[in-house]
C-alpha cells in the first residue's frame, strides 16, 4: 500500500502561523507479504557432477530443524567411536555431539556419494514481512516557485524484525539470508533467520531547496 496525505490546514502559508503550521505531508509504503521459497542445500558435491548445491536427505520422522553432518572415521578422528572407515554423524548445533541420523530431519551426504538427496526444492519459506516506511515532510514556501523542503524518512518505523531483508543503513551487516547449508552453516545458526540482518529501524533526514 502506498499513500500520500497532505494536511489541509494553512496550505497557502500566509503569515507566521501559516508558515509554521502549513505545508505538512505524510506519505509511506506499507508492505505485508509472505516469505519467499527457501531450499536447504547439502553443501558437498554428493553426486560428483560439480558444485555444492546438491540437496540432503530429508527424514520426515526426524526432529524439526535438526541436521546430521557425516564424516568418515579415521584412526585419529573418530569422536563417535565407530569402526575406522565407517561413517559417523554429528550435529554442529549441539556442540558437535554424535547423533543418530534417524533422529535428524536433514541428513548430509558426503562428497562423491554418487547420488543426490531426496529433499525437494523450495520446501521451506523465509519469514514474511510486516514493514512500514513512513515519510514526514514539511514544505516552507518562499514564493510561487521557491520553497524549502524538510523531510524525515522512517524506514521500518515500528522496528519489526524483517529477517533476510537488508537494512538501508550503510553501517548494517550484509544480509546473508537464512543459513540453510547442512555442512557449512555456522554452529547454532542452521535454519535460524534471526542471524541474518533484520532490517532494523533507520531514520534519515533531508533538507532541500527547490527553485
* Spatial extent as radius of gyration: 27 Å
Structural class: mainly beta
Unreliable stretches covering 5 or more consecutive residues: none
Count of alpha/pi helices: 1
Chain-averaged pLDDT = 90
Number of strands: 12
SSE sequence, one letter per element: EHEEEEEEEEEEE
Report, as a whole number of angstroms, the end-to-end distance: 31 Å
With strands numbered from the N-terminus, the spatial order across the biggest sheet is 1-2-10-11-12
Task: Give a short account of the largest sheet.
Answer: 5 strands, antiparallel
Instruction: Estimate the global geometry from the Cα principal axes.
Output: rod-shaped
- Bin the helical content: under 10%
Q: Count structural domains.
A: 2
Strand content: 25-35%
Short account of what is shown:
It is built from one helix and twelve strands; from the N terminus they run βαβββββββββββ.
Describe the fold and architecture.
β10 (129-141) and β11 (147-155) form a beta hairpin. The chain starts with a strand and ends with a strand. The model has no long low-confidence stretch (mean pLDDT 90). It folds into two domains: 2-36 and 127-178 and 185-210; 40-120, no CATH class. The strands form three sheets. The protein has a five-stranded antiparallel sheet with strand order 1-2-10-11-12, with helices on one face. A five-stranded mixed sheet has the order 4-8-5-6-7, with no helix packed on it. It has a two-stranded antiparallel sheet with strand order 3-9. The chain has one helix at residues 15-21, and strands spanning 2-6, 24-33, 37-38, 57-58, 63-72, 87-91, 97-98, 104-107, 124-125, 129-141, 147-155, 202-210. It contains one helix and twelve strands; from the N terminus they run βαβββββββββββ.
